[in-house]
Design a protein that fits this description.
CATH topology of the largest domain: Quinone Oxidoreductase, Chain A, domain 1
Strand content: 25-35%
Largest sheet: 7 strands, mixed
Structural class: alpha/beta
């Protein structure tokens, strides 16, 4: 079938993207689902820094590629072997397809699925196939989703069924921002009631983590970011303290928290932010990082303090989530008002406006923007 999609052909074009147009809206071909795959109609897709890092060239991917990994839509057709979905079901896409049988999946850690990671790096679906073509030449899939398009063929292992009355623009956020942010708090850091937590980096994922820390019962939530507007929003969402990420941040936070926070969660995606998170953590505290800096970034830490202060640093990918378990429970928390995910949605765009949307993300003016694909047909 013919679909409209946002195709990236070249990395590192200069900003502003509204002028350089790194994402070209083009008509391309999409093959139907093979074994274990599903054809979905995309209704909404979020703008995430993981997409932006590909556009900037900081996270190289095989080109050409249809970007977009945080998406929600409607099932239209099922490939052979898929018997637990039906046309009309609403689904959220997950950007790591999990095979279910590799050592990581067997340990209950699907975010670290080895075949899923290999497929994502190669720009193919979990089956190893490509279903996107332009001029009869293959086009790569982004993280098994390629959600900036009218339709997508994806692995069944990339989909979680959700309630049909959940708005698509909210549902999409559960596939990345909420999984990564809330998951980093409740699964990776295991924040407990009464604890002191810092959230470093207040994009969509960081704000979701803030909501997660509040839901977990953290007594004190310290928000850290470069943007005054985001710090104000963090306070409105439940942060108890807000600090600009400048040269005075570390001594100011350590003084305010009487020696540092128990848990620092870094979601800015930079080595400098991670170093700041480590510096504001108290003796015996822990740092959890879910940000994705440039592959060339190097971390500089005082090695002695790891032992002498019994500090811990842990990574968190996809929020250490089990999506089939966590997306439904996070949606239930949203419905109860415990996770007001809808408040993270700051801007809506049409597909034709996608480069402008990434300009706003790059400039730090978005918390979470969503492309309403369904409006563009």
């Amino acid at each position: 079938m013919k679909i409209r999609a946002a195709v990236l052909d070249q990395l590192g074009l200069p900003a502003p993207y509204a002028e350089s147009q790194p994402l070209k809206i083009a008509e391309i071909d999409l093959d139907g689902p093979g074994y274990g795959e599903v054809l979905i109609r995309i209704e909404a897709a979020g703008l995430c820094h993981s997409d932006l890092s590909v556009i900037e060239g900081n996270r190289p991917r095989p080109l050409p590629m249809v970007l977009g990994h945080e998406a929600a839509g409607v099932v239209e057709a099922l490939g052979p072997g898929v018997d637990d979905l039906e046309p009309g079901d609403h689904v959220v896409c997950v950007f790591v397809p999990s095979c279910g049988t590799c050592p990581s999946c067997a340990e209950g850690r699907p975010a670290l699925c080895e075949p899923g990671a290999a497929a994502n790096g190669a720009g193919v679906l979990l089956s190893g196939s490509r279903r996107l073509f332009r001029f009869e030449l293959p086009v790569n899939h982004h993280l098994g989703v390629s959600g900036f398009a009218g339709h997508a063929t994806v692995s069944r292992r990339s989909l979680i069924k959700v309630d049909r009355d959940l708005p698509f623009e909210h549902a999409a956020l559960f596939g990345c921002a909420v999984l990564t942010g809330v998951g980093a708090v409740v699964n990776s850091a295991r924040v407990t009631a009464g604890s002191t937590v810092a959230i470093v980096g207040l994009g969509g994922v960081g704000m979701a983590a803030l909501l997660g820390a509040k839901a977990a019962g953290a007594e004190r939530i310290v928000a850290v970011d470069l943007s005054p507007q985001k710090l104000d929003m963090a306070l409105a969402l439940g942060a108890t303290d807000a600090f600009a990420a400048d040269a005075d941040a570390v001594p100011a936070i350590r003084e305010a928290t009487h020696g540092g926070v128990e848990q620092a969660i870094e979601l800015a995606g930079s080595a400098a932010a991670l170093e700041l998170a480590y510096a504001i953590t108290r003796r015996g505290g822990a740092v959890t990082t879910g940000g994705l800096p440039s592959p060339k970034a190097v971390l500089h830490l005082p090695a002695l303090s790891l032992a002498a202060e019994e500090k811990t640093i842990r990574g968190s990918y996809l929020g250490s989530c089990v999506p089939a378990r966590d997306i439904p429970r996070f949606v239930r928390m949203f419905r109860r008002g415990v996770l007001p995910v809808d408040r993270l949605l700051s801007d809506r765009f049409e597909l034709a406006e996608i480069n402008t949307g990434f300009d706003r993300l790059r400039e730090g003016k978005l918390v979470r923007g969503v492309v309403l694909i369904g409006n563009d047909r």
